[in-house]
Design a protein that fits this description.
Layout: H1 9-18, H2 21-39, H3 43-46
Length: 53
């Protein structure tokens, strides 16, 4: 049986007032990672796209 997750009224209130800072930070981190990957992509110089990391 699935137990409903407990609610956190103070967190819900903070999200309503300030936005979902955790979700925004996660999206920003993902975007920064993509940008860093693109900037550190030297495959055009080496002629290959071998990315094992």
């Amino acid at each position: 049986m699935h137990t409903p997750e407990p609610t956190a009224p103070i967190y819900d209130l903070l999200i309503a007032e300030r936005g979902d800072v955790v979700a925004i930070a996660a999206r920003t981190a993902e975007e920064t990672q993509r940008e860093a990957d693109a900037m550190l992509d030297f495959s055009a110089l080496t002629g290959r796209r071998d990315r094992t990391a």
